Amino acid sequence: QAQAVILGIETSCDETAAALVARDASGNGKILSNVVRSQLDEHAAFGGVVPELAARAHVAFLDHIIEAACRQAGIGLAEVDAIAATAGPGLIGGVLVGLTTAKAIAAALGKPLIAVNHLEAHALTARLTDGVAFPYLMLLVSGGHSQFVLVRGVGDYARWGTTIDDALGEAFDKTAKLLSLGHPGGPALEAAASQGNPRRFRFPRPLLREERLDFSFSGLKTAVRLEAEGLAPLTDKDVADIAASFQATVAEIVAVRARQALERFARELPGHRPLLVVAGGVAANRTIGAGLQRIADETGAELVVPPPALCTDNGAMVAWAGAERLALGAADDLSFAARARWPLDDPDMRI
Ligand code: KG4
Ligand code: ZN
């Protein structure tokens, strides 16, 4: 197939996003535009994402965001070769808005629809930004997910581990809320932690003695809450020290798990240099990134972290996943239903 230009639409959480991405015949991608409108203001007063408000904001803004994406790329909708939209997993109201819009455009233009799994979009982003080749290991750490996934090919995934309770971004957000640092908590907590002493508190590291590649963050969250309640009222120094100690703890948990996952990769895929790709909003955290780089150096693995704007939710990753699927001949029926849950190793991901 020659060059294809794909429109990508992302509405599964609290960003309304659209992008145009081109993929050439040799598989190289180029972002022509990438427009993201975050709904932070809509949800700020509630300390978290309110699904109904999110869906309504997607309805209000998506058309403008798609228009802006076309304008910035200098490409009319009619010149697009296919329409890709996140079809799940995510907040179902928002997913419906994006997927239905994509179906309408596809039907009106007579162009193929690609129903994209949001997790696959995160998983394939490093092929757009860094041209990485299969197979590789992905660590997805976002507000909704914390998983190790073996990426064998487009549509071909094996989940090696997940969280048994909170996602890592969620743990950051809840801890930040507890410390009155605001929402979204990850960046605020990282900023506070930079002023603190990471060794003042020793928090538990659940599951860490076990070999399994799963995470658990809810016990840590409780420990942080008890510590904070014991010290109340908290001084700025207490807040910074708790934030720094929390961050150091999760960075260590992630690093230990990454080492185990890379060792498994080396065992099960001999002949391939272990490659770890980090995706999701938490990939922006510098302490976690430094821990992962140390593990990569120690195990002889390569570490790839796409730029933060492409690690957090965006339309370019959805367009790119759509382009990769289209290049393999995939397209979806206009009856494709939005899904609140959709694991990456679902058999219907296969092309
Ligand atoms: O991938 P993302 O934008 O949205 C989804 O959840 O899909 O990830 C957002 C999450 C939030 O929980 C946010 O607090 C966290 O990523 N995050 C961070 C940082 N930046 C964003 N967590 C820790 N450190 C950061 N610098
Ligand atoms: Zn995401």
Automatic annotation (TrEMBL):
Keywords: Acyltransferase, Cytoplasm, Iron, Metal-binding, Transferase, tRNA processing
Binding site for substrate: L140, V141, S142, G143, G144, D173, G186, E190, N285
Superkingdom in the source lineage: Bacteria
Binding site for Fe cation: H118, H122, D313
Residue stretches making up the Gcp-like domain: 30-320
Acyltransferase as UniProt keyword: yes
InterPro entries, per database record: ATPase_NBD (IPR043129), Gcp-like_dom (IPR000905), KAE1/TsaD (IPR017861), Peptidase_M22_CS (IPR017860), TsaD (IPR022450)
Subcellular location: Cytoplasm
Keyword match Repeat: no
Pfam families reported in the protein's UniProt record: TsaD
Described function: Required for the formation of a threonylcarbamoyl group on adenosine at position 37 (t(6)A37) in tRNAs that read codons beginning with adenine. Is involved in the transfer of the threonylcarbamoyl moiety of threonylcarbamoyl-AMP (TC-AMP) to the N6 group of A37, together with TsaE and TsaB. TsaD likely plays a direct catalytic role in this reaction.
Full protein name: tRNA N6-adenosine threonylcarbamoyltransferase
Organism: Devosia nitrariae
